[in-house]
């Protein structure tokens, strides 16, 4: 809820203040006299420091080194209203999560502040403080009368001491925070925003473990979908059923989805960000499912599988599917430390251009289509990129400079997707009729190591044969 005061109760006694709300019922004096008493003491336990604390400390130290002498302000963000008295679920700004190690339990409106100081040896550094709203004393109207932050309404909030112990960061009450002239504030300050984005390009071992976890839970979510295919087919808005099945896994094992699930059956698969998900799932069609679980630390997977609803690919579906897989395999083969990020995309595009030229779909040769200046005809059938960085944001490191990202060099510790596709829209007159309405994407999550790429999502069936065997195992007779 977005009001700072509940609409169902007021914090003044009946005799005070004229009514301004059409719903407030003023507190009678007896309520006010008794509400603050009769509560057991809450021991302020010091929780153990979280495993991610030293990693977050190293990230803060790196940021401090990049801005000697500057005061840095990194806000968590706050609630956003969805409809009256109803907010979207709060999720902290990814940079704040990265720099604090806070995840799904981050407190709205907190601010991480780096105050410049000089070390004893004369080196510049920063004192870092996490400002957050201290829990209200039970004698305050906030406790019982504030539907947005009052503990009577939303449940217990963490204490300043508890957060300091868990994250290993000094904390202070948000009321003590004041902005100052010259502050470098995230999102307003381009250099700061770029730097925190680039800080996330190479993941540490804690982050890699979280990415593995996110992929593992996502794999279970895909299994759930495959196992539920008969019910999904029987549901008029079967795409919504797919979304719901995945949501159940995402919420029970993680914080939720890292982005809106794409459940795109039949021709919907050709709409790259189809999230309306209101179509039927029909045997004989393919269904493209692009979904990722965001775990409690806020790291997310981003995985796509394209399934034959009946359990078996038709010959043309299989040809297109295996071409996309060939493009993905070429991208994997190109990815290694020391080459540019861009070379992954170029490898996938080489396969896509060649195959669609072989099928007679292009007005030019594959070589002409691949010409950087004058080509691109094949991109009609795959307009999106092959890869993006992945982490706390599904499209991670989005403010990194081009020379660090698309033209940057692959390094061990980078995590990114490989996700080629082919999409033949239902009304695309440039392709034979049998291609129309078929969309395929295969998306895997990849960790670069010194020895080359590791496919984190390799356990989720991927080849056409593996996908058919998967459906046969979990959902025998699904589309019969
Ligand atoms: N799910 C969005 C993407 O694949 O980039
Ligand atoms: Mn992706
Ligand atoms: Mn995706």
Task: Explain the layout of strands and helices.
Blueprint: E1 9-13, E2 25-27, H1 29-34, H2 53-66, E3 72-75, E4 81-83, E5 86-87, H3 94-100, E6 111-118, E7 124-132, H4 141-145, H5 151-154, H6 160-167, E8 171-173, E9 184-185, H7 190-198, H8 205-227, H9 229-234, H10 238-253, E10 256-257, E11 262-265, E12 286-291, E13 293-294, E14 303-308, H11 315-334, H12 342-358, H13 366-369, E15 415-418, E16 421-424, E17 438-441, E18 444-449, E19 452-455, H14 464-474
Parallel strand pairs: 1-2, 3-9, 7-8
Antiparallel strand pairs: 3-6, 4-5, 6-7, 10-13, 11-12, 12-14, 15-18, 16-17, 18-19
Bound molecules: glycine and manganese (II) ion (2 copies).
Q: How would you describe this protein?
A:
- By secondary structure, this protein is of the alpha+beta class.
- The protein has 2 domains: 5-33 and 44-198, Creatine Amidinohydrolase, Chain A, domain 1; 205-474, Alpha-Beta Complex (Creatine Amidinohydrolase), CATH 3.90.230.10.
- It has 14 helices and 19 strands.
- The chain has helices spanning 29-34, 53-66, 94-100, 141-145, 151-154, 160-167, 190-198, 205-227, 229-234, 238-253, 315-334, 342-358, 366-369, 464-474; strands at 9-13, 25-27, 72-75, 81-83, 86-87, 111-118, 124-132, 171-173, 184-185, 256-257, 262-265, 286-291, 293-294, 303-308, 415-418, 421-424, 438-441, 444-449, 452-455.
- The strands form 7 sheets. The protein has a 5-stranded mixed sheet. A 3-stranded antiparallel sheet has the order 11-12-14. A 3-stranded antiparallel sheet has the order 15-18-19.
- The longest helix is centred in the middle third of the chain and has 23 residues, at 205-227.
- The protein is globular, with a radius of gyration of 26 Å.
- Residues 1-18 have low confidence and may be disordered.
- Glycine binds at residues 259, 290, 302, 388, 394, 419, 443.
């Amino acid at each position: 809820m977005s009001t700072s005061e509940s609409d169902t109760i007021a914090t003044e006694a009946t005799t005070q203040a004229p009514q301004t709300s059409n719903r407030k019922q003023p507190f009678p004096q007896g309520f006010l006299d008794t509400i603050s008493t009769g509560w057991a003491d809450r021991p302020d336990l010091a929780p153990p420091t979280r495993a991610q604390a030293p990693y977050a400390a190293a990230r803060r130290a790196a940021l401090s080194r990049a801005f000697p002498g500057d005061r840095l302000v990194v806000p968590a963000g706050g609630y956003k209203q969805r409809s009256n008295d109803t907010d979207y679920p709060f999720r902290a700004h990814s940079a704040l999560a990265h720099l604090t190690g806070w995840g799904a339990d981050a407190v709205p409106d907190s601010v991480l502040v780096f105050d410049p100081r000089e070390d004893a040896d004369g080196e510049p550094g920063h004192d870092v403080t996490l400002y957050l709203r201290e829990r209200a004393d039970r004698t305050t109207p906030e406790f019982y009368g504030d539907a947005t932050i009052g503990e009577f309404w939303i449940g217990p909030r963490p204490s300043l001491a508890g957060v300091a112990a868990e994250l290993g960061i000094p904390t202070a009450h948000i009321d003590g925070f004041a902005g100052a002239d010259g502050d470098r504030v995230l999102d307003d300050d381009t250099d700061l925003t770029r730097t925190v984005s680039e800080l996330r390009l190479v993941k540490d071992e804690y982050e890699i473990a979280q990415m593995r976890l996110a992929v593992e839970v996502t794999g279970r979510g895909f299994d759930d979908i495959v196992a539920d295919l008969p019910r999904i087919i029987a549901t008029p808005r079967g795409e919504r059923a797919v979304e719901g099945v995945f949501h159940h896994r995402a919420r029970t094992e993680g914080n939720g989805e890292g982005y809106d699930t794409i459940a795109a059956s039949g021709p919907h698969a050709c709409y790259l960000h189809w999230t309306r998900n209101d179509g039927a799932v029909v045997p004989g069609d393919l269904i493209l499912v692009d979904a990722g679980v965001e775990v409690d630390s806020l790291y997310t997977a981003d995985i796509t599988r394209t399934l034959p609803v009946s359990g078996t690919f038709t010959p043309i579906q299989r040809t297109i599917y295996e071409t996309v897989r060939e493009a993905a395999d070429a991208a994997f083969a190109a990815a290694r430390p020391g080459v540019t990020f861009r070379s992954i995309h170029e490898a996938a595009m080489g396969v896509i251009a060649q195959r669609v030229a072989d099928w007679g779909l292009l007005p030019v040769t594959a070589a002409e289509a691949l010409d950087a200046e004058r080509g691109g005809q094949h991109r009609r059938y795959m307009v999106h990129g092959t890869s993006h960085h992945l982490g706390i944001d599904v499209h991670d490191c989005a403010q990194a400079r081009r020379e660090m990202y698309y033209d940057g060099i692959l390094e061990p510790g980078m995590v990114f997707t490989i996700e080629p596709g082919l999409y033949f829209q239902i009304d695309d007159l440039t392709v034979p009729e049998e291609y129309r309405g078929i969309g395929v994407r295969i998306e895997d999550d990849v960790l670069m190591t010194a020895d080359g790429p590791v496919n984190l999502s390799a356990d989720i069936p991927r080849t056409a044969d593996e996908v058919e065997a998967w459906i046969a195992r979990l959902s025998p007779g699904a589309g019969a």
